[in-house]
Design brief:
The complex is a heterodimer. Chain A is of the alpha/beta class. In chain A, about 15% of the residues lie in helices and about 25% in strands. Chain A contains two helices and seven strands. In chain A, a hairpin with a 2-residue loop joins strand 1 (about 10-15) and strand 2. The longest helix of chain A is centred in the C-terminal third of the chain and has 12 residues, at about 130-140. Chain A starts with 9 loop residues before the first strand and ends in a 36-residue tail after the last strand. Chain B has a single domain, classed as Cytochrome-c3 Hydrogenase, chain B (Orthogonal Bundle), CATH 1.10.645. In chain B, strand 5 (about 185) and strand 6 form a beta hairpin. Chain B starts with about 20 loop residues before the first strand and ends with a helix. Chain B has helices spanning about 75-80, 85-90, 90-95, 100-115, 120-150, 155-175, 195-220, 220-230, 235-240, 245-250, 260, 280-310, 335-345, 385-390, 395, 405-410, 415-420, and strands at about 20-25, 35-40, 50-60, 60-70, 185, 185-190, 355-360, 365-370, 380-385. The chains are: A alpha/beta, B alpha+beta. Chains A and B meet through helix 1, strand 3, strand 4 and helix 2 of A and helix 1, strand 7, strand 8, strand 9 and helix 14 of B.
Chain lengths: ~180, ~425
């Protein structure tokens, strides 16, 4: 745990399920990554996972699902949570899963928090593998990576509107042809 | 490896710049008026599914390339967010439809990590045996199609014959040939059927001979050698920088296998060898695949012994809040009926938290990042797709090759488009 205390811009370090997560200040991301690559030997960016926490914990605790207008009969109380989850600092999280390919293998999750529209630096210059992963995070969740010279949609069609993995994007939100015509 | 601080590129890298996945035409090497832009795919028989390559050709030489993916995007991750943990297991194998059990395994393992439950030994060995059979299955499909693309038609039929024997084994355990949903949170959906180990042993006896035969067919074929040796070069440093994994990495001389370096299941208790080849060309990737099939059969044999030893032991954890009660209890026990009803309708809840679990799938590191808010449905599911990462190397490995070799090079990445696009 303490071995990552000297990483630039570290805000928080936590250990859960045997996995180490360090949360960094988005402004110092590139600095932190270069440090981790060059001093800790994390030579592979194995994954980049962004997540949207809009509505996190709003489902309520079991037994308290009733709203001001009364209990929703279509949502039985047992579907609520056993306890409210811990609040998150901002709406979006971006988690970089780093891997050390060497005789002393290790994994590390580097995490940062962003508000809607808040940009973060691209990591292409640190790990070229970030290229498509960043495009995917842009396409699916609308995270903007500054310095990426080809930040265009990758999985959805080029002219798609919205970012499907956002929590306010409805399931089945695909426009169907002729649906707006009489 | 000598990484210069604060710069991306070390000495001798071939990764294009500024965008690592796009090979721009070099005006010093090619006259721009000679360039012909060819749209290769997405519907082309030799692109392994719906991969689209936009190729800039100077004569027959590839001068520029960019890969376009997303034609098989089906929104698995979004769909899984709206299904209970219990039901979303069905989605995982369909993502990578050639190594289905591997995806199912990584998803189930990630849920188990959040739940902090330990799987019974019998289930661990059965999972390993099936995961390795999946590896052989996937490599056979790769070998058959990769050889087919270079004109070796007969090998395709041989490979698919062996593949069918594996699918028969899957059918025996899970009832369906593909996408068995046999791995359940906590263990297996049912115990292995009687006679499974005997049938699997028959396969283990015949498979190594088949691999020898296929290798003999290809290794003595001048066309195969000419078209694979020295094609699609990727150095070890470039492979790591581009996030490659699995056979791609091992064919580039990086001695790395998650099964051995970061063991999961019971891979630290079996004896196997990790093949590594130094040249980073298509031929070495083919050799890695061949050796891995032999090693996988060896692992399966060891697992079958343990499966026989654990005969009669439980194959799923005894936790009625997570696992369906045995069928026969439903007719006699009210509590079992309630538990069954609750799990099927509402699903079980998973404690709040986030995990990333990675396994060595046939294509490399298959990872699963899960976030739970403590409810009955996943908050976020993200799959780290090895095909997605492998395709990022396209622009690096095809520099200066001929258009015909582009097929061999792209095929050697072993991409499954369902996996890349999810």
């Amino acid at each position: 745990m303490t071995e990552y205390a000297s990483v630039p811009g570290v805000v928080e370090t936590r250990l859960a399920h045997g996995e180490t997560t360090i949360v960094v200040d988005p402004a110092r991301l590139v600095e932190a990554c270069l440090w981790l690559r060059d001093h800790h030997g994390f030579n592979v960016l194995s994954d980049l996972a962004a997540a949207d926490y809009l509505g996190w914990g709003e489902q309520g605790v079991a037994g308290y699902i009733g709203t001001a207008t009364g209990r929703d009969l279509n949502r039985p109380g047992s579907q609520g949570l056993a306890r409210l989850p811990d609040p998150k600092p901002k709406r979006f999280s971006v988690s970089y899963h780093l891997l050390r390919v060497s005789d002393e293998p290790a994994r590390l999750r580097l995490q940062l928090w962003l508000d809607d529209g808040e940009p973060v630096a691209s990591l292409i210059d640190v790990w070229p593998a970030a290229d498509w992963f960043e495009r995917e995070a842009w396409d699916m969740l609308g995270i903007r990576f500054e310095g990426h010279q080809n930040l265009v949609r990758i999985l959805m069609p080029e002219d798609w509107e919205g970012h499907p993995l956002r929590k306010d994007y409805p399931l089945g939100g695909e426009p169907v042809r002729f649906s707006d015509e009489d | 490896m000598s990484v210069l601080p604060s710069t991306r590129i070390y000495e001798g890298t071939r990764i294009p710049s500024p965008v690592p996945t796009i090979l721009e035409i070099d005006p010093e090497k090619h006259r721009l008026e000679d360039i012909l832009r060819v749209n290769f795919g997405p519907n082309h028989p030799s692109t392994h599914g719906v991969l689209r390559l936009i190729v800039d050709l100077d004569g027959e030489t590839v001068a520029g390339i960019r890969a376009v993916i997303g034609y098989l995007h089906t929104g698995f991750e979004k769909n899984m967010e709206s299904k209970s943990w219990w039901k979303s297991v069905t989605y995982a194998p369909r993502i990578d439809y050639v190594s289905f059990q591997a995806n199912e395994l990584v998803y189930v393992m990630a849920i188990e990590k959040l739940l902090e439950i330990e799987v019974p030994r019998r289930a661990v060995w059965a999972r390993m045996a099936l995961a390795e059979l999946t590896r052989v299955h996937s490599h056979l499909v790769w070998l058959g199609t990769a050889a087919l693309e270079l004109g070796a038609i007969s090998l395709f039929w041989y490979c698919f014959d062996d593949r069918d024997q594996i699918l028969d084994l899957f059918e025996m355990v899970g009832g369906t040939r593909m996408h068995t949903r046999y791995f359940q949170v906590g263990g297996l959906a049912e115990d292995l059927p009687p006679g499974f180990t005997a049938e699997a042993r028959k396969f283990c006896d015949s498979m190594p001979k088949s691999v020898d035969e296929y290798e003999a067919i290809l290794d003595r074929n001048a066309i195969w050698l000419e078209r694979t040796k020295g094609i699609g070069l990727l150095s070890a440093d470039d492979a790591l920088a581009l996030g490659q994994s699995g056979p791609m990495l091992r064919a580039s001389g990086v001695d790395w296998d998650l099964r051995r370096n970061m063991p999961y299941l019971a891979y630290d208790e079996v004896d196997f060898h990790v093949p590594v080849y130094p040249h980073g060309d298509v031929y070495d990737r083919y050799k890695v695949h061949m050796d891995e099939m032999r090693e996988s059969v060896r692992i399966v044999r060891q697992c079958l012994e343990r499966i026989d030893e654990t005969e009669g032991e439980p194959w799923i954890v005894d936790d009625r809040k997570i696992v369906l009660p045995p069928r026969h209890e439903l007719h006699t026990s009210m509590e079992s009926l309630i538990h069954h009803f609750k799990i099927v309708t509402e699903g079980f809840t998973v404690p709040e938290g986030e995990v990333y679990v990675a396994i060595e799938s046939p294509r490399g590191e298959a990872g699963c990042y899960l976030v739970s808010d403590g409810g009955a449905r996943p908050w976020r599911v993200k799959f780290r797709a090895p095909s997605f990462a492998a395709l990022q190397a396209t622009a690096t490995i095809v520099q200066g090759v001929l258009i015909a070799d582009l097929i061999a090079a792209a095929g050697s990445l072993d991409p499954v488009m369902g996996d890349a696009d999810r």
